[in-house]
Prior knowledge:
- It is a single chain.
- This protein is mainly β.
- The chain has one domain.
- It has one helix at residues 41-50, and strands at 9-15, 21-29, 32-38, 53-57, 60-67, 78-85.
- It has a six-stranded mixed beta sheet with strand order 4-1-2-3-6-5, covered by helices on one side.
- A hairpin with a 2-residue loop joins strand 2 (21-29) and strand 3 (32-38).
- It starts with 8 loop residues before the first strand and ends with a strand.
- The model has no long low-confidence stretch (mean pLDDT 93).
- Residues 9-83 form the Dual OB-containing domain.
Amino acid sequence: MVQPDGGLLTVTVAKERDDKTKIRLHFRYNRVKYALTTTDIWSQDYFRGCGIGEYELENIQAMTISLGEPFANGNTTKIVAEIFRG
C-alpha cells in the first residue's frame, strides 16, 4: 500500500490505442511521478461516466499497487488495484 504525496490524484480519461478509453491516475509518491492505469471498480465506473478529460481526486488515504498480467516477453506493468478514499 502507498499513500500519494499530499493525498491527491489527477485522473485523466482519454482515448488511447485501438480507440479504447483509458483511465490513468497521476500522482507523486516519495517525490517520484507516476501515471498508472487502474482496475479499481469505483474509479473505473465513476470516471468513465465523467467523459474524456482531467479530474482531481482528493483525500486519498492509500492505494494498493499490483503487477499486471505479464506480457509475452515476461515484462509486467504496475497498476492501481484499489483506492482507499477518506
